[in-house]
Please model this.
Amino acid sequence: MTPGPSSTTTVRDATYDVMRRQDMTTIFSNPGSTEVAFLVDLPDDLDFVLALHEGSVVGMASGWAIARREPAFVLLHTTAGLGNAVGAIATARVNRAPMVIVVGQQDRRHLALEPFLAGRLDGLAGEYPLDVLSPVRAQDVPSAVERAAHRARTDQGPVLVIVPMDDWEAPYDPADVSAAREVQASRSAPVDLDPLAALVASSGRTAILAGAGNDDAEGWRSLTSLAERLGAPVWQEPFGARAGFPQDHPLFAGHLPAERARAREVLEGIELLLVVGAAAIRQYPYAEGRLVPEGTRIAVITADPQEAYRSPADLAVIATPSVVVEALLNHPVLAAVSVPPHTQAVPALSAGPVAGHALHVAHLVAHHDALTATDVFRTLADVLPRHTVLVEESPSSRGLLQAMLPAREPLGFVSAAMGGLGFAMPASIGLKMAMPERPVVAVIGDGSAMYAIQSLWTAAREDIGVLCVVMANGGYAVMDRLAERVDGKPPWPSFPELSVGRVAEALGCRVVRVEDHTRLESTLAAAAERLDEPGGPLVVEVTVAQDSHFAP
Model:
């Protein structure tokens, strides 16, 4: 006779065991009444991290997940909680941040009557979750959480599990499961690489476009070897969330423009553009014409099938980029390839028109007190350690920041691939929580900071030593510049009275305000020396002039 379910084991207990098995023992949450039954009397080996807004909850979990490449565990409150988090979930999807998001639901026993707090949750986050699981029985909840962890880990993105509040106390039968205990996914490249090797070998001038999907130690090492073998300049993908190549390498050519005409200009004469870890080719404003010069072929290597499918490429290979590139290096066709004489010259690092203009302006005002973004970034470049994780959300000065603060180690640059604001501040906190041994510095505009400023309370509460450099220019500079591009008058006001520093102080953070060169240099130098020491977050609010140019 088969024994019945144990009266001492509940769905909640079984879910805790799944979380332990899947290494998801930190819970990021802003809970409500539908989550109380899951959280009360939480076991001591599970850590609970509270954030004061659901966007910050998912943002922190994103940083945690990006650093660890393992699923983070998020707990959200029914409709309002999930609704507040949708933008951050979209960013997590595009940023390849694996996470299991459990969303509370009203009591299953009267859902048909649509009681107060009952949520229509399945489609609320749209298509941004990799999957949305709604267990039919309470018994199926632990297996659903386990399946979500497998999917999040394998496909690197968020998965939702919707759980009615009464399910947690239901009895659980450990023999009645519907999920694998362990899933191992191959990282090999089970494809015929002969066509790709032949395409690379037959191209006289090859350039490489590195993307966020190549941002790990193996990816950097293999792609550096391939670039050196081919003598190929390496560009970074436009608006990339991460760096896919060491940006202090002599072959690094800069960030490919996100406008077609400018992209064609810099790629003129290139016979093959080899895109590694990205789609071909991400743009921002629409423009007429080809993506690349006529005669330039495109090959794409990506682990993301959707990136491959939407790329206008001559050839796309779906596999882990580092594995494919390593196989290319050892392919017999490429073994005999020597660097053509006309490609051996090392290209100069291109700062682009935005950075070039800003550097010129900085020279003109060098003897004045007014601070610019150039002053801030030059000082950071002088004092930050090589292994710093730089998190960016300063849209109007992004191009300048990337030119002056190159990523020198994997995970050296992190940004929101979706483009929405509110990512950098909580993500930097999550990154530092997951990697306490690395300095984490967020560069954030004052307008951007307001989208997730509640996350600073969590950093102070948890003693997370992240450095937030707030670029206080008193307005939405990037919006002002976009209005100027169409000769339009913007209806939105500036906000010079806004002080992120005062809000940060109210949330328990240490704050330093900077308005002149001397204080800027001394403050950032002192902050850099303490990046590896405990002491909670430090917010440096720097008054800067608005950037006068914006060219994507």
Q: What stands out?
A: The chain has 20 helices and 20 strands. The first strand starts at residue 6 and ends at 10. The radius of gyration is 25 Å.
